[in-house]
Structures are given as C-alpha cells and as structure tokens.
Specification:
The chain is an alpha/beta fold and 402 residues long. The chain is 45% helix and 21% strand. The strands form four sheets. Strands 2-1-3-14-13-4-5-12-10-11 form a ten-stranded mixed beta sheet, with helices on both faces. A two-stranded antiparallel sheet has the order 6-9. α13 links the parallel β15 and β16. The chain binds NADP nicotinamide-adenine-dinucleotide phosphate (NAP) and magnesium ion. NADP nicotinamide-adenine-dinucleotide phosphate (NAP) binds next to α10.
Length: 402
C-alpha cells in the first residue's frame, strides 16, 4: 500500500508523562504505517523547555501561526513540586497560556460521543462545543476588603486628562469591592474566532451574557458580536444555513439543557470556566474531550482537553500495565490531519482522519475500551483493554477500512 503524501508539515508539539508515551504509540501504530507523516517537531516536554529557557514553546506557537495547523500533546504546567522534581531554574509558564497569547486565540472544547456512553442529559445527541473567552473579567480583577465604613468609587482618567467617575458604594460597615475590565480588541478577536469556527464547522453559534443587568459591560460584548456579525459574517452564515443567536445567559442555560446539541456556545470568561466543566461532566469523561485553539487569522492547534495523566505515568514507570485512554489524543491528530487535508486539497488525508475516528469509535462500540469508559458504558459485553491493546484493536478496524 502506498502511503498518503502530505505537502505542508503539521506543527507537532510533543509533551510530557503518560500522554508523551501514548503520543509515540499513536504515531507508530496508527499514523506512520499509513501516512508519509510530515511534521515540524517541537519538543515541549518539560526537560527541553527547561533546556531552551522555554524558547521552544514560543517557537512552536510561531510555527503554528506560520503553517496554520498544529497538534499538541498534553504538557506539565510547572508548580512548586515540579520545580523540584525536574530541577527547574524557573517555574515556566503554562505552555497553553504562552501559545494562546501568541496565537491570540479562543479555545473550543467539544466532547466525543460514542454509543453505550450516554450523556446525563437525555436529549443531547450531538456534541455541544464551548467557546470560552480567555481574557479579562474576574481573571484580571483587582479587589479590596475593608473592615470599616468608607466610599468606593470607580475612576477612569483618560490619556487626555478627562476624568470619569462613578460611585460604587457608600459602605456603612465592612465589605468587599472588585474592579474588572475587558478590552474591545480582545472581545473582537473572541467574536471573530467564534464566527470563523461556526463557519468552519457549519454549526449555529449561541452567545449568552447578562446585558439586562450589566447595561454597559455585558451589553458591550453583545454589541461587538452583533456589529461584527452584521458587517462581516451574516452573508456567509446565510449561505451555509447556520444561525447566530444572542440570548440572556440564564435563558441560554435553559435552552442548552433542552437542546439536542450540535451548536457552539460562546461564553464570557467566567461562564466558560464553569459551563465547560458542567458540559464535560454531563457528557461523561475528561478522556473524551477534545480541545482546539483557533486564532482570529485562522490558525488551528488541536489537543486533548485532559492533562498528562501523571498517576498513570508513575504506574508505567514502575512497569505496571496502564489503561490510559488515548481517544482524545487520537482525535487531536485526526482533527489536525483533516484540517491539513482540507487546507492543502488532499482529500485522502481528510478521509484517513475520518476513518481513524470511525475505527476508534467502532472499537468502543464493539465493547473494547479502557477502564475509565468501561465504568460508564451500558454495553452488555465489555472487554477491558490496556492502552496498547486498545490501539491494536483500533488498528485492526482501521486496516479493514483502508
Ligand atoms: P489529568 O492529567 O487530566 O488527569 C486527572 C485524572 O483524570 C487522571 O488521574 C485520571 O484519573 C483521569 N484521566 C485523565 N485523562 C485520562 C485518560 N486519557 N485516560 C484515563 N484517565 C484519564 O490531570 P492532572 O493529573 O491534574 O494533571 C497532570 C498534569 O497535566 C499536570 O502537571 C498539569 O499541569 C497538566 N495539565 C496539562 C494540560 C494540557 O496540557 N492541556 C491540561 C490539564 C493539566 P484516575 O487517576 O482516576 O485514573
Ligand atoms: Mg475550571
């Protein structure tokens, strides 16, 4: 069999621990036998990040912007324990945060649905994708606690000296205060990513905020979305037969629960933090969530939503059998390959991505799965597989399809 040829390399961002082990296995078993895999490789494993003073992370993000499609393995975000464990000279920043700030993107998270693993919400038959704004609001807040009465004011001094002032509250006793902000540039880039992603995936886009209460702050989000939509995206949405809808966040929540899924839900930063955990949990499992970072200029970075699965890695180091679920990491690869195929006009590559996804889901639907899924599956007959056995089962089905 001749291998599928690629023209543009994928930006490959390798990572840490158990996911790094699975990364190599997925390539060896499911990709390189079938594809003449072209990648520009960046080692984001913590040791090499340390060695390059984290320059490798910056370089990989710039490469993602240059080539347009990247696939990333989960990486360790260092904390004090990791600084000791890896003998780091600095507590390097989260690679995802570094990449996000360079690509200026929005993260879209979507669950992988498979028969036998039913979402807790009965009506959800299609995935719900959460788009979370990744800048500002309470994540950049300043706060004050007072133990005595006093006056809290919001003061803005413009560059030209003009001053705007609002009374926040006259405190008669102890209390708390918070100042938050966002910028038009960030909201616009968020809105653009959402509209572009809706077009790319041909799904409706919902955006919810609380403009009835927050008549300036939240209303501003609503206006920016609506203006951009009317001016630049409405025509394309109409052509594709997809819709953009703004609604109050509380109404959005009610509609989401009653829906059948199959749309993108754009959320302000805090709402997205909370709602993505709710949606992920309601769909079943962390090991079945995919994540894609899309920049407003149309570059994509695909990854699994879970971390490096540290506990399993320590088992692996002790020589024990591991049952880590590779599905979300496989889907990161298929997402990237399909996108590369689409951009470069290589239908065999996109079709390979689709077949690999089908083979993966087919394996679970035939009853072969890792322990995390076995615990949730309603299938009558289940064969628990370790990671290697699972990949081999997927490969059997993939071979038959090719
Ligand atoms: P985690 O790696 O997501 O794992 C948490 C737990 O979830 C695991 O111990 C396991 O539960 C279960 N799990 C997650 N993925 C699984 C899979 N594919 N198959 C089976 N079970 C799975 O989170 P963590 O242990 O809190 O974090 C480990 C490291 O990952 C940290 O250093 C963190 O900084 C990093 N991290 C990276 C990213 C990223 O790169 N995007 C995201 C999050 C965290 P059981 O132990 O019960 O089996
Ligand atoms: Mg959270």
């Amino acid at each position: 069999m001749t291998k599928i040829r690629m023209t543009t390399p994928l930006v490959e961002m390798d990572g840490d621990e158990m996911t790094r082990i699975m990364w190599q296995k997925i390539k060896d078993v499911l990709l390189t036998p079938y594809i003449d895999l072209k990648t520009e490789y960046y080692d984001l494993g913590l040791e090499y990040r340390e060695k390059t003073k984290d320059q490798v992370t910056v370089d990989s993000a710039l490469a993602a912007k240059k080539y347009g499609v990247a696939v990333k393995c989960a990486t360790i975000t260092p904390n004090a324990a990791r600084v000791q464990e890896y003998n780091l000279t600095e507590m390097w920043k989260s690679p995802n945060a570094t990449i996000r700030s360079i690509m200026d993107g929005t993260v879209f998270r979507a669950p992988i649905l498979v028969k036998g693993i039913a979402p807790y919400v009965r009506t959800w038959t299609k995935p719900i994708t959460i788009a979370r704004h990744a800048y500002g609001d309470i994540y950049k807040a300043v706060e004050i606690v007072t133990d005595r009465p006093g006056t809290c004011e919001l003061v803005f001094t413009a560059e030209d000296g003009e001053v705007k002032k609002e009374l926040v509250h006259e405190f008669k006793g102890p209390g708390i205060m918070q100042g938050i902000h966002n910028t038009d540039a960030s909201i616009e880039s968020f809105a653009r990513s959402c509209f572009s992603y809706a077009i790319a995936t041909q799904q409706d886009l919902w955006f919810g905020a609380k403009d009835t209460i927050s008549k300036k702050y939240d209303h501003h989000f609503k206006d920016i979305f609506q203006d951009l939509f009317d001016k630049e995206y409405k025509e394309r949405f109409d052509e594709l037969g997809i819709k953009y809808m703004y609604t109050l966040i509380d109404d959005a929540v009610a509609r989401v629960i009653r829906s059948e899924g199959g749309f993108i839900w754009a959320c302000k930063n805090y709402d997205g933090d909370v709602m993505s955990d709710m949606v992920a949990t309601a769909f079943g499992s962390l090991s079945m969530m995919t994540s894609v970072l899309m920049s407003p200029d149309g570059s994509f970075e695909y990854e699994a939503a879970h971390g490096t699965v540290q506990r399993h890695y320590y088992e692996h180091l002790k020589g024990h059998e591991t049952f880590t679920n590779p599905i979300a990491t496989i889907f990161a690869w298929t997402g990237a390959l399909k996108k590369r195929g689409e951009l470069d006009g290589i239908p065999e590559l996109s079709s390979f991505g689709e077949k690999l996804e089908k083979a993966t889901l087919g394996t679970v639907e035939d009853g072969y799965m890792t322990k995390d899924l076995a615990a949730m599956s309603s299938l009558p007959e289940i064969h628990i597989t370790n990671t290697d056995q699972f990949l081999a089962e997927v490969n059997k089905r993939l071979e038959r399809m090719l």
